Amino acid sequence: MDYFLTEEQLMIKDLARRIAEERIKPVRAELDEKEEFPWNIIQEMAKSDMFGIFIPEEFGGLGGGCMELALAVEELSRVCSGVAISFAASALGTFPILLFGSQEQKEKYLPKVASGQSLAAFALTEPDAGSDAAGIKTTAKPDGEEYVLNGTKQWITNGGEADIYSVIALTNPAKGMRGASAFIVEKGTPGFDFGKKEKKLGIRASATRELVFSDCRIPKSNIIAKEGMGFIVAMKTLDSSRPGIGAQAVGIAQGAMEEALAYSHQRVQFGQPISSFQAVQHLLADMATQIEAARALVYCVARFVDSGAKDISQETAMAKLFPSDVAMKVTIDAIQILGGYGYMRDYPVEKMMRDAKITQIYEGTNQIQRNVIALEMLKKRAKGK
Ligand code: COS
Predict the structure, then answer these.
(1) Could you read off the pLDDT of 262-273 as tens digits, one per residue?
(2) Residue of the CA atom closest to atom 37 of ligand 1
(3) Does residue 22 carry a catalytic annotation?
(4) Is 309 exposed, middle or buried (0-12, 13-18, 19+ CB in 10 A)?
């Protein structure tokens, strides 16, 4: 399908595909097996300016948006979603600064992210606050010209590897969600340590780690937006990043479908390639149809976000929900086509299935996405929209 991509978008897509095919594919199984953070590949991507895709030119980026980011994430995920999410999570960690940061914060941090000199990470989730984002307990107590952070963040993608962390913490715990604020915390700040490194089902090349704040002092100038705006910063950040998870899911599904298609040509049973059996053909046809529908939704919503539209929660939740459910189904069906071989680590589809699962969980579970979509529908109806 022709999505009428611009020349620049085609260049980004080609670049991401080249890095994925040439640099990531040969090592993806090893990265998965060893649960190794892909620093060499990250550096290669940095040299190719990929980390600047979504950052405005005035801050050293390429000036693209959600669409350009989606194209890159999709291509990387087609080969290895673990590497892709390490790239995408840096964008997630940067969105609070991009959307709400002061000019000084943008000048200080965005060029470092754009050049790939520093990775970023987003820290909202805690041991007792996942779907219920307003239930966080990490505090940031004002003290003179500083804030003092205490608490633990959990399952932070790029944790330990990133230099720049956008952290949501309570400046006024009595006010609950309205007492939350967002902060930039740099790696190396005294009182900021890394806890447990998670061992995961999938996306095993990526780093997922606890962040531990113990009387961690940061300057007051590191607050993003204003005190009390942390929940809004977090929600708007997730609104912007969810199409990226959709793109990740589309990429995983595409990779799995290509593997299944190739295998079905070469595998002979009952004297003929299994691709000649209608049972296999129908699985392939459903895969292709669902992937194209998911891709069309992601691209359409990404363009909607890039149009500057303000009210994007419903659409971006859809762009995460549908593709991630598609990725799960497609990867399971791809394993079915490969049969016993699909279940073995010699073929990449079992990894793709493991990688797909997280897209239904992180950046808001798919149950939360359905809540967001339904609530937005009801709100719009009440407003007569
Ligand atoms: N943009 C702007 N404002 C938003 C918003 C958004 N996307 N979502 C919510 N708000 C506002 C609401 O308008 C409301 O403001 P008012 O009280 O002034 O009307 C306020 O924030 C609270 O909203 P709500 O009552 O819907 O909050 P809830 O505590 O019920 O939670 C959900 C809302 C469940 C949607 C939120 O907690 C969420 O997204 N959870 C998932 C978190 C997540 O994705 N975690 C993954 C970890 S990060 S990788």
Answers:
(1) 999 999 999 999
(2) 133
(3) no
(4) exposed
